[in-house]
């Protein structure tokens, strides 16, 4: 991790789930340039490396190739294949399954007409596949449904390996992510104004929740980068750090500060104040010099028995010993 995090603290992140299919990841603060670096990496993994479900081949009785037509079917085979590629399905296991789609006498054939097993969920039953008008109901379509990763472009080698020549192989987009973008905006910590805030927004087709898509992508990146530094890890302590190191340092500082607060108790008796002034302070629960100098004079003046003489005496005694009282808080109107 960048050594700058020793100064600005570890990045804070949150995932904002707008719905099951949409979520945003917000990370801040990051060193300048890291928003672009992390955002682009997340976007590429989200689009290319998450598992999803797609139709990889189709068999239509009476059609030998994608440029043919069927009697009683209004759409060409090519248009039917384009519609099939838009089907939103979720397959729970990795195996291949063949799904039947019977032709109708007339009317629209939609995703809800698919005869699927319990292993497949139809996420958008209203998706239109084609429209029939006096079609032969004895004929049917068969879809080959698979679970995979990324985008698969059909090659000549794939066609040559296909065992069933009645199936037409189609390009398959397995990615469950339908939309992803990242935005880098300015962030600030104290006087440092050139920091980054990264927002990654993602939408899915419902087969994978958007929040889980973000987490899975981050895990994939983490696993790959760990390969580069698994053995003989090299670090430069002057310019790099880690989340654990920052956490340990802050915990140590908090423990030390708490211990210092407990031990920092100097009785006000040693100031040699008059009995009247001393009584006024003690009655106001101010018993140490540390408490005294942290209290503004405006607050001390409200103590019972603390008048102008006590104020003058206290200012003189503290000045002689090199102490100054806490200045009064300024109002917003001043």
In short:
By secondary structure, the protein is α+β, with helices and mostly antiparallel strands. Helix content is 31%, strand content 27%. It has 3 domains: 5-50 and 177-228 and 237-246, Gyrase A, domain 2 (2-Layer Sandwich), CATH 3.30.1360.10; 52-173, Beta Complex (RNA Polymerase Alpha Subunit, Chain A, domain 2); 268-320.
Question: Helix and strand layout, with pairings?
Answer:
Elements: H1 5-8, E1 12-17, E2 22-30, H2 34-48, E3 51-60, H3 77-84, E4 89-91, E5 97-102, E6 106-110, E7 120-122, E8 128-133, E9 140-149, E10 151-152, H4 156-161, E11 168-169, E12 172-173, E13 177-189, E14 192-204, H5 210-228, H6 243-263, H7 275-283, H8 289-293, H9 297-300, H10 308-320
Antiparallel strand pairs: 1-2, 2-14, 3-9, 3-11, 4-7, 5-9, 6-8, 10-12, 13-14
Helix pairs in contact: 2-5
State the separation between the terminal residues, measured CA to CA.
43 Å
**Domains counted in the coordinates: how many?**
3
CATH class of the largest domain: Mainly Beta
Largest sheet: 4 strands, antiparallel
Give unreliable regions as ranges. Answer: none
Q: Determine the CATH superfamily of the largest domain.
A: DNA-directed RNA polymerase, insert domain
How much beta, percentage-wise? 25-35%
Radius of gyration: 35 Å
> How do the SSEs run, as a string of H and E?
HEEHEHEEEEEEEHEEEEHHHHHH
What would you say this structure looks like, in words?
It is a single chain. The radius of gyration is 35 Å and the shape is elongated. The protein is of the alpha+beta class. Helices cover 31% and strands 27% of the residues. Helix 2 crosses helix 5 (210-228). The two termini are 43 Å apart. It has helices spanning 5-8, 34-48, 77-84, 156-161, 210-228, 243-263, 275-283, 289-293, 297-300, 308-320; strands at residues 12-17, 22-30, 51-60, 89-91, 97-102, 106-110, 120-122, 128-133, 140-149, 151-152, 168-169, 172-173, 177-189, 192-204. It is built from ten helices and 14 strands. The strands form five sheets. It has a four-stranded antiparallel beta sheet with strand order 1-2-14-13. Strands 5-9-3-11 form a four-stranded antiparallel beta sheet, covered by helices on one side. Strand 1 and strand 2 form a beta hairpin. It folds into three domains: 5-50 and 177-228 and 237-246, RNA polymerase, RBP11-like subunit (Gyrase A, domain 2, 2-Layer Sandwich); 52-173, DNA-directed RNA polymerase, insert domain (RNA Polymerase Alpha Subunit, Chain A, domain 2, Beta Complex); 268-320.
